């Protein structure tokens, strides 16, 4: 075996080890992500519908937070989020987003392994 092929093989082996290490770290992180929600938090203003309320008399709308989730084959579903729940919903939405990023990276690593015959 030539010196160049030994160097190429050692570089390839080092890259494979790096991918294995990165994969282990990503899978571990994925396993720590808690309750996930696929959706988006939206802030908007609305009328509450109560007669005599400032939103119907003075036109001062209430600020509300909504969770928008898509359901296959249907329109987006909007769920009211209480102010006390908002941080928990935000964490769940961010966890889902991070999980998706991890899965995308794992896909790239797995493609590289298959292409190299590993």
Give structural notes.
By secondary structure, the protein is of the alpha+beta class. Helix content is 54%, strand content 17%. It has helices spanning 3-32, 54-57, 86-115, and strands at 40-46, 62-69, 77-81. A three-stranded antiparallel sheet has the order 1-2-3. The model has no long low-confidence stretch (mean pLDDT 89).
Radius of gyration: 24 Å
Unreliable parts: none
Q: Give the averaged pLDDT, no decimals.
A: 89
- Dominant shape: rod-shaped
- Report the helical percentage: 40-55%
Q: Alpha-carbon distance between the termini? A: 21 Å
SS-derived structural category: alpha+beta
Q: Strand sequence of the main sheet, in spatial order?
A: 1-2-3
Number of helical stretches of at least 4 residues:
3
DSSP summary, beta strand count = 3
Q: What kind of sheet is the major sheet?
A: 3 strands, antiparallel
Estimated share of beta-strand residues = 15-25%
Structural descriptors:
single chain; 118 residues; alpha+beta; three-stranded antiparallel sheet; 3 helices; 3 strands; 17% strand; rod-shaped
């Amino acid at each position: 075996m030539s010196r160049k092929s030994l160097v190429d093989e050692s570089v390839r082996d080092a890259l494979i080890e790096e991918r294995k290490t990165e994969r282990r770290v990503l899978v571990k992180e994925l396993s720590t992500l808690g309750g996930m929600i696929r959706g988006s938090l939206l802030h908007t203003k609305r009328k509450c519908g109560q007669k005599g309320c400032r939103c119907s008399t003075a036109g001062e709308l209430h600020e509300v937070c909504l969770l928008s989730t898509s359901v296959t084959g249907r329109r987006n579903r909007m769920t009211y989020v209480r102010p006390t729940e908002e941080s928990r919903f935000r964490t769940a939405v961010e966890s889902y987003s991070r999980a998706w990023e991890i899965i995308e990276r794992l896909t790239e690593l797995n493609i590289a392994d298959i292409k190299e015959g590993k």
